Here is the input.
Amino acid sequence: MFDIQEELKKLPGSPGVYIMHDEQDEIIYVGKAISLKNRVRQYFQTSRNKGIKIEQMVTHITRFEYIITDSELEALVLECNLIKEHRPKYNTMLMDDKTYPFIKVTVDEAYPRVMIARKMVKDGAKYFGPYTSSGAVKDTIELIRKLYHIRSCNRKLPRDIGKERPCLNYHIHQCMAPCQGYISQEDYKSSIRKVVHFLNGDYDLILKELEERMNRASEALEFEKAIECRELLGSVRKIAQKQKITDTAGDDRDILAVAVEEEDAVVQVFFIRGGRLIGRDHFYLKIARGEAEAEILASFIKQFYAGTPYIPAELMLQDTIEDMEVIEEWLSGRRGHRVHLRVPKKGTKEKLVELAKKNASLVLSTDKERLKREEGRTIGAVKELEKLIGITGVVRMEAYDISNTNGFASVGSMVVYERGKPKRNDYRKFRIKGVQGADDYASMEEVLTRRFEHGMREKEEGKELGGFTAFPDLILMDGGKGQVNVALQVLNKLGLDIPVCGMVKDDNHRTRGLYYQNEEISIDKDAECFRLITRIQDEAHRFAITFHRQLRGKGQVHSILDDIPGVGAARRKDLMRHFENIEAIRSATVEQLKELPTMNEKSAQDVYNFFH
Here is the structure.
């Protein structure tokens, strides 16, 4: 029996993280402290004014545990990770997991490209953004290609110059065909320098150039060319108008403010890059009644900036928050340069914070009803599902499906839903490697084994939570008893305890019910839970089918050998000539593989490792 008063006496005065559990032993709150002894004791002191949320939470605590760290900064990082993994009931939770695209210019290449990127990595390329709209990024990239005739292909240049015919973009005058050597590397890079100026917000040069081109075409009676220039001028002016100057210092900063109403909160963020407002976004948070705005803002910062790929040099806040210095140190470590948290008291910056606050209030007041409906479709539906099968604490669900054509190019899909919403960044595709023919059970066993073994390896390596590393609270299989049993066998073999539920369809391939713990459970077709299950099942099927069609379209259905690193056309032909079929290649030893004329030690080992 856990004696809270006795355990409080044992608490150390060290920094660390404390974890509160309820009567079902679920984690309901995670916090950090400079001194665990002082902080945790405060929760159980009747004389202290703790606020409505904490008072309510304390009544549910049956035990607590703690993890000692070397510093308050380490405690902050651990707190962020544990909140993200367990999503405790009494922690302020960010409801939206959004990612923002960048524009990437591959300046390290001989003939650079301009493309959309979801992450900013240290790969020698230049990144611009992040931007709040994928549509705006795509429009900008399309405009850049029209203006500067930059290539969009993935050919390796200059190695592949002249190997293939130029693509359609060359013929419609949107590419200068460096793949044919029609433009020198020096001239091409000159165009790339103009692209970089454009993305930095220097529009004057291109506006002047387009106007001159339009006038010349008009004087030469080349009206189609003149119209084209006029349309491009309009597009550039449209982008230039969106990039309004907000700060003469030209710095990168985010402006944050929060609005609160009962158990709902909205944080509004303005993204300023290079002194220009490039976009804004709002985020919904689920809070406890009576929670202070500063506390909500601190929780948001820790959750949002733990996952965002770019952290600006400055965050402008409406209020001073707790642990400002520690959060600054943590953000500076993630950014690699100093990050400041400031609360402006006058001037333009204060007005921007006020504007963000007004926007947050407006979103909260206008979207409250929509937010409630959305919660019914998502979190409400998950609660219905929990009640239906008799489990609790379902945040992350993963669904799986298999697709093939008469056994060719079998593929598996994994789709992820968190709090009833698709989390597309965590979707995963699998090409079936170890199964011949149309054996859905064996294919599913391979997919699940690879998925969870990969996740276990990444956890051991201490990788950031997400993708394979985050394990589901519930697995949904596209099928009944057979598919559920396959999943349970894999989990048992790997020593994992995760509930598995089958999504059963009727003879007309429509969702009929659920199969859980050897029992089929019917669902009310008017319930939100039924609609959610149908959406998840359809999404898993769509994702698998789409991947399968992509492979067929690329002509890759015939050979799994295409996926083996280091195996090109010559080695592939040699393998197929020497061995009767894929199964024979799979069964071959490294020594047998080395006997082939085109194989060396490394390539033979690569082939062997691929199948094993």
Observations:
- The chain has a mean pLDDT of 83.
- The longest helix spans residues 347-389.
- The radius of gyration is 28 Å.
- The chain has five domains: 4-91, 102-242, 253-367, 396-553, 560-611.
